């Protein structure tokens, strides 16, 4: 009766490259083939089924490699199916209020005269001062202040009605 150590040594020395090629054909990766071969050798030679002639052990080892590979594939597919359930749910930000606010602001700006709208955009969007707006539009600072006051008075009720009546 041969010892299992001798059977393992003989199998790996004579059939090792062929077994690794077989594992490579299954896994399509050199590293994964080495891991598969090692795992199958471990399973076969730690179980009680390693007796017999080296040809029978090789056939048994190839079967173990195939089954190990298929188990790994099935396990991976199972993980892919349940992974979405395991990952934390991330909420998607609700941009509907921003879109609604933009639409309301656009509608309110459309209700202003051209000069009032220009003054509001330059003051609150471009962040220009009253003297800078006056220079850019070529009108007096007093007129700019009047346009801004009239625009604010006109916009306030329009924008308050869209935000639930809160004051700004």
UniProtKB/TrEMBL annotation:
<dbReference type="Pfam" id="PF04545">
    <property type="entry name" value="Sigma70_r4"/>
</dbReference>
<keyword id="KW-0805">Transcription regulation</keyword>
<dbReference type="InterPro" id="IPR014284">
    <property type="entry name" value="RNA_pol_sigma-70_dom"/>
</dbReference>
<protein>
    <submittedName>
        <fullName>RNA polymerase sigma factor</fullName>
    </submittedName>
</protein>
<dbReference type="GO" id="GO:0006352">
    <property type="term" value="P:DNA-templated transcription initiation"/>
</dbReference>
<dbReference type="GO" id="GO:0003677">
    <property type="term" value="F:DNA binding"/>
</dbReference>
<dbReference type="InterPro" id="IPR039425">
    <property type="entry name" value="RNA_pol_sigma-70-like"/>
</dbReference>
<comment type="similarity">
    <text>Belongs to the sigma-70 factor family. ECF subfamily.</text>
</comment>
<keyword id="KW-0238">DNA-binding</keyword>
<feature type="domain" description="RNA polymerase sigma-70 region 4">
    <location>
        <begin position="108"/>
        <end position="156"/>
    </location>
</feature>
<dbReference type="Pfam" id="PF04542">
    <property type="entry name" value="Sigma70_r2"/>
</dbReference>
<keyword id="KW-0731">Sigma factor</keyword>
<dbReference type="GO" id="GO:0016987">
    <property type="term" value="F:sigma factor activity"/>
</dbReference>
<dbReference type="InterPro" id="IPR036388">
    <property type="entry name" value="WH-like_DNA-bd_sf"/>
</dbReference>
<dbReference type="InterPro" id="IPR013324">
    <property type="entry name" value="RNA_pol_sigma_r3/r4-like"/>
</dbReference>
<dbReference type="InterPro" id="IPR007630">
    <property type="entry name" value="RNA_pol_sigma70_r4"/>
</dbReference>
<dbReference type="InterPro" id="IPR007627">
    <property type="entry name" value="RNA_pol_sigma70_r2"/>
</dbReference>
<feature type="domain" description="RNA polymerase sigma-70 region 2">
    <location>
        <begin position="11"/>
        <end position="78"/>
    </location>
</feature>
<keyword id="KW-0804">Transcription</keyword>
<dbReference type="InterPro" id="IPR013325">
    <property type="entry name" value="RNA_pol_sigma_r2"/>
</dbReference>
């Amino acid at each position: 009766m041969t010892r299992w150590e001798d059977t393992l040594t003989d199998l790996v020395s004579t059939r090792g490259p062929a077994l690794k090629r077989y594992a490579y054909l299954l896994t399509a990766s050199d590293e994964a083939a080495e891991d598969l071969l090692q795992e199958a050798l471990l399973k076969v030679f730690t179980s009680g089924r390693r007796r017999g002639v080296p040809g029978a052990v090789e056939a048994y080892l190839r079967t173990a490699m195939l089954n190990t590979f298929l188990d790994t594939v099935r396990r991976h597919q199972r993980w892919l199916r349940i992974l979405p359930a395991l990952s934390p749910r991330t909420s998607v930000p609700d941009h509907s209020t921003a879109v609604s606010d933009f639409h309301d602001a656009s509608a309110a700006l459309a209700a202003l005269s051209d000069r009032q709208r220009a003054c509001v955009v330059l003051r609150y969007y471009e962040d220009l001062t009253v003297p800078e707006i006056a220079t850019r539009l070529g009108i007096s600072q007093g007129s700019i202040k009047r346009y801004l006051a009239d625009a604010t008075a006109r916009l306030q009720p329009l924008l308050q009605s869209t935000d639930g009546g809160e004051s700004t």
